[in-house]
Amino acid sequence: MTNPLPTGATIGILGGGQLGRMLSVAAARLGLRTHIYEPGSNPPAADVANAVTTAGYDDTAALTAFAQSVDLVTYEFENIPTETLDIIEEITPIHPNRHALGTSQDRLVEKEFLESIGLKVAPYADITDAASLEAALAQIGTPAILKTRRFGYDGKGQSRLTSPDDAATAIADMAGAPAVLEGFISFSKEISIIAARNPQGDIACFDPGENVHRDGILHTTTVPATIPASLRTDAVLLAAKILNALDYVGVMGVELFVTPQGLIVNEIAPRVHNSGHWTQNACAVDQFEQHIRAIAGWPLGDGSRYADVVMENLIGDDVNAIPALAKEANCAVHLYGKVETKAGRKMGHVNRIKRA
Ligand code: AMP
Is residue 71 a contact partner of residue 92, using CB atoms and an 8 Å limit? Predict the structure, then answer.
């Protein structure tokens, strides 16, 4: 290992949601500490972290103290303001790097990057106003999806167009935010691959999972995905290409559409990913430990899987099924400690092991 973080070192995590919580647990298993920075009160990660700062992303004094108290910083979500990163990076390293984060924060920049390294993306156009949307629709056609360039998640900030008549509504939905128009891909499946790279340049991928969404939110990930072996290889190769091109350190989620023309990249997430939660119960080193290993300069787990598995998200009232789920054989329950159940809120997930 080249300069791995020593036992007792502290990793700062921007964001205190469930991903930060599961990263903190993984760090603790490797003898490392975590310090969570989160504007909201009672974040899920606070229960399992060594320290928590409750302050806004524009609070220079709090960010400075946070950065000084840790050995490196990582993040569990991508919508972090540039100014926040500027303050932190003066003091301590950030993994994955700024360039990777900046690329994934903006759908237009992301698509241009992916194309520049030879990967396929949906047909797209930069949309700034009604006129550019009209021109783009003439070229790309319908159905299509207008998406805000920034701050979209779980299908939010998106407007579907079934005909050019929907243009005015779609533009209004963007509320003045810069957007991209994407041609609608008629995919047979959605899959994702969780990949990791460490500072030495080693890369390890988990098997691609097959994703089903409900109301724009991930519902299940099934592993293995029912795709030909050649596409599994393609997914690994394209993920490695992305990580190398970004000089990436950490775990990344790559969402893909399966089409007769091969794999099309939907989006990349520069962090651990909901569709990688299955690794917690089907791999010796899961995505959370893999991320900590990568940023801490440890050797990576090899990504191999010792069971088939289906991950199911518990959204809102789904969590009421816990008493029954807890009785199921080979069903691992993961709860995020969120006291208040709200519609659409990710409360936990289960991993059902299909083959021991
Ligand atoms: P996104 O937030 O970009 O991941 O989009 C959320 C979901 O909308 C995806 O998981 C797909 O099911 C669907 N979707 C997004 N973009 C497209 C597209 N260009 N063509 C078809 N379906 C899409």
Answer: yes
What spacing in Å lies between the alpha carbon of 145 and ligand 1's midpoint? Answer: 8
The per-residue pLDDT of the chain, averaged, comes to 96
Residues in contact with ligand 1 (CB, 6 Å cut-off) = 122, 145, 152, 155, 182, 184-185, 190, 213, 216, 255, 266-267
Could you tell me where in the chain the CATH 3.30.470.20 domains are found? 189-355
Beta carbons within 8 Å of 341's beta carbon, 6+ residues apart: 316, 317, 319, 320, 347
Give the span between the Cα atoms of 281 and 272, in whole angstroms.
15
Q: Is the domain 189-355 a CATH 3.30.470.20 member?
A: yes
Q: What's the one-letter identity of residue 322?
A: I
Residue 193 CA to ligand 1 center (angstroms) comes to 16
- Band (153; pLDDT cuts 50, 70, 90): low
Is it true that domain 123-183 has CATH number 3.30.1490.20?
A: yes
- Mutate which of 107, 120, 145, 255 for ligand 1 pocket (most atoms within 8 A of beta carbon): 145
- Residue 155 is predicted with a pLDDT of 67
pLDDT on residue 156? 73
H/E run at residue 83: helix 82-89
- Ligand 1 centroid, distance to 60 Cα (angstroms): 36
Distance 46 CA to ligand 1 centre (A): 32
